[in-house]
Amino acid sequence: MSATPPLLSVDDLRVHIPLRGGAFGRSREVVRAVDGVSLRLNAGHALGIVGESGSGKTTLARAILRLVAVTSGRVEFAGRDVLALAGRDLRAWRREAQLIFQDPYGSLDPRMTVQAILAEPLRAHSLATSDELSNRVADLLQRVGLQPEHMRRLPRQFSGGQRQRIGIARALATNPRLLVCDEPVSALDVSVQSQIINLLADLRRQSGVALLFIAHNLPVIRQLCDRVAVMYLGRIVEEGPTEAIFENPRHPYTQALLATAPDPHQRRSDRWLALPGEPPSPIRPPAGCAFHPRCPFAEDRCRQERPECEEREGDRPGQMTACHFADRMTANALRARLGADIA
Fold this sequence. Notes:
alpha/beta, 4-stranded antiparallel β-sheet, 30% helix, 20% strand
C-alpha cells in the first residue's frame, strides 16, 4: 500500500530577482532570494519555516502562492502543477491556498467595515449570495472568537490581536486546504501571540487545514508545528520532526538559532553559542556551503563543495541536514571548538 501523497510538494524552487543597473537599466546581477528549496507538506499538518531576516522565508511563501515570479523549479498542490495554472484554473486554485499577513494593522483596508472585508472573498469566488452574506460573515467571526455584531465596525476599532483574527477569518472565507502564515504573530504582544497560536491550532484540528508557518520565533514553532525547516541564505540547511530539530540539532546554524531562543523547553545551557559575522550577500553567495564564513567547523571541503540537505549518520528518523560534518554537531564539540567557558 503506497503512502498518501503530500498536499504540497516543492522541488528545487528558485527565485532570482534581477537588479537593475548599468547602461539602459539592464540587469547585471540577481538576488538569489530562494536558491533551490525542496519541501513536502501533508494535508492537516503544520510545517514551520525559520531563519534570520533575509533568509528567504517570505519570498518562498509568496513564490508558492504565485505572488512573485519563479525562476525555476516545481510546485505541486494535490497533484496539480501550480506554476502551470492560468486563468480560471489559477483563480479556482487560489480558493484552496490563502495567506495570513504579518501586519494586522496594514493588511486590512481602514475604510472598509469588517463585514465588507469578509464579504469580499465570498463575492469574488461566488461562495455566497447577497442574502447569505451576513450569515456567512457572522459565522466566520464566531470561528475566530469574535462576535457577529463586530461586523459593523472599522479595523481601527479593534486591538492588534482582534485585527489578526479578522485577517484569519478572511483567509478562512474560501474554506482553504492550505493556510500560509507569514509571521502572523510577530507584530503582537506575547500574551496575544499565544491566543492566536491556539486559535490556529484549533482551526487546524477542526478543519484539517494544512499550515505553512513562517516565523523567527522558535518557541511558537515548537508549540504549533509537526516539522521544521531551517533556512539560511535562500536554502534549507536542516529539516525534520519538530522534536528532533529541538533536541538533536545537527547544523551549526540551527544550534545558533536555538541558543538565542528564549524557550522554556530548552534545558541545555548552550546560550554561549554566538556565531561571528553576518549572513553573506544573496547577490554574491560564497562558494561551497553558504554558512562556511561563519561556521566554527568549516574546512576546505566546506569552501569548495555545497552539501545537500539529506539524511546523515546521527540524524533521527525523518531528519535531514546540509552539513558535511553533521556528526560533529554536539554541544560538547561546539564548546571545545569555540573555547567557551560555561558552567
